[in-house]
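Tip: read the tokens left to right.
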């Protein structure tokens, strides 16, 4: 069993409501631990976590040191957009086979790096070590250092054997790789502006956020890692403030940058009207002038008013509907609950792959007493609780989609594969329309009558 349910709520469900839930402050949840090897979990591996964070760097070469299977993780299943290079849409692998596993894969890796540098002269290469490399013990760091010394190209080792922890550990490995990249540039002069951490430019969301910041007069120094490239990443140490959107993947990097480069950070979210407005005002208050703060207040108020009529029109379509949420990180789950609240939809099941204790405490404070909260669940558990709570729609990613369809309920893709923006005020329109179309499609009634 991968899932952990808030202790008191578990009792509540099992005992049919005879036991009372405690207040959110007193609730404890077991989370942020490794999945049990061999169990089926909705979580991805360490390598996947690292690749999520680094893949959007548009002019980097991503070489997967391992068997070819791991390299099936490519741009095609993520969807970060670029305003420059599209090198990152390729995936390279050393394609280790039996012989390499017996005699070691270092020579093959060195040859792969050599080939990429000779043919493409890149500025930046990431080498991901996957499971089998963790087992045979290739000295990937040494191969990378040697290649850097020989060619002057940044060749950065990302230690990410799938079994070495959980997806969050992969985030940490990616952050360490980014630190290795920017640390040599940490003494540059400060400039006015912010870095955006933890937005991956899915369906162009980074461009939407940059436009909002432009409207309120806040410059963006570097984006980590949506639509990033080598030249913009190395400017990151010059920023005044880090904005952390995907807290699960980027808080570690933000803390390191605070310690080593003196850049403070604030957590933000651009999902839903409430979070988008609050975040923009907080950013202006953190580094802006009185004029920036005033602009932020005016901009957010105008955009909120524009959406009021739109949301009112849809709310009646959602009366009595219940939602289940299962997403990667806590920050997204929190924003989604708020967004569903804005739409008048009750969240009856909510879970994450990598949420932290503090995320679950916020989640518990936002949902009703009967809501089931899950950490690192598996499909059978998710199905059981969605059925028990009568969810009408599941918001999740590629792995959750078949589960919803199998149950004959609506689905909304809020993962990295999505093809339309869900962030900011623009995203509120897309999200609301998608929820409405999916929830109120006549197909669900038809599916049910066939059972
Ligand atoms: S790193 Fe390991 S768990 Fe992850 S995709 Fe490769 S083989 Fe599978």
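Filled-in amino acids:
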């Amino acid at each position: 069993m991968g899932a952990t349910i808030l202790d008191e709520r578990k009792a509540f469900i099992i005992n049919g409501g005879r036991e009372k839930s405690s207040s959110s402050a007193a609730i404890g949840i077991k989370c942020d631990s490794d999945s049990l090897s061999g169990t089926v979990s909705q979580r991805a591996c360490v390598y996947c976590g690292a690749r999520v964070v680094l893949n959007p760097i548009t002019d980097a070469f991503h070489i997967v040191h391992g068997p070819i299977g791991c390299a099936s993780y490519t741009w095609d299943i993520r969807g970060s957009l670029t305003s420059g290079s599209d090198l990152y849409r390729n995936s390279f692998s050393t394609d280790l086979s039996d012989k390499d596993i017996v005699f070691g894969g270092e020579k093959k890796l060195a040859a792969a790096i050599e080939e990429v540098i000779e043919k493409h002269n890149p500025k930046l290469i990431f080498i991901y070590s996957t499971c089998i490399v963790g087992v045979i013990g290739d000295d990937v760091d040494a191969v990378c250092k040697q290649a850097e010394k020989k060619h002057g190209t940044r060749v950065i080792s990302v230690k990410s054997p799938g079994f070495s922890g959980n997806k969050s550990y992969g985030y940490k490995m990616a952050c360490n790789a980014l630190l290795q990249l920017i640390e040599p540039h940490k003494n540059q002069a400060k400039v006015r502006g912010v870095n955006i951490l933890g937005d991956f430019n899915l369906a162009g969301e980074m461009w939407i956020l940059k436009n909002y910041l432009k409207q309120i007069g806040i410059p963006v120094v570097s984006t980590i890692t949506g639509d990033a490239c080598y030249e913009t990443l190395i400017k990151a140490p010059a920023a005044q403030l880090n904005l952390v959107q995907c807290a699960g993947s980027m808080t570690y990097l933000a803390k390191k940058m605070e310690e080593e480069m003196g850049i403070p950070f604030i957590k933000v979210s651009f999902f839903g009207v409430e979070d988008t407005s609050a975040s923009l005002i907080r950013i202006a208050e953190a580094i802006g002038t009185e004029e920036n703060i005033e602009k932020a207040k005016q901009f957010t108020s105008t955009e909120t008013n524009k959406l009021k009529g739109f949301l009112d029109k849809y709310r009646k379509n959602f009366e009595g509907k219940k939602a289940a949420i299962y997403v990667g990180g806590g920050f997204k789950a929190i924003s989604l609950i708020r967004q569903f609240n804005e739409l008048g939809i009750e969240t009856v099941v909510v879970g994450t792959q990598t949420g932290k204790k503090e995320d679950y405490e916020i989640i518990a404070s936002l949902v009703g007493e009967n809501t089931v909260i899950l950490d690192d669940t598996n499909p059978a558990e998710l199905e059981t609780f969605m059925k028990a709570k009568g969810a009408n729609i599941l918001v999740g990613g590629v792995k959750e989609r078949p589960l919803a369809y199998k149950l004959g309920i609506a689905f909304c893709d809020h993962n990295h594969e999505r093809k339309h923006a869900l962030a900011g005020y623009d995203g509120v329109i897309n999200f609301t329309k998608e929820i409405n179309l999916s929830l109120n499609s006549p197909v669900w009634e038809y599916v049910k009558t066939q059972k």
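The longest strand covers residues 346-352. The CA atoms of residues 137 and 182 lie 27 Å apart.
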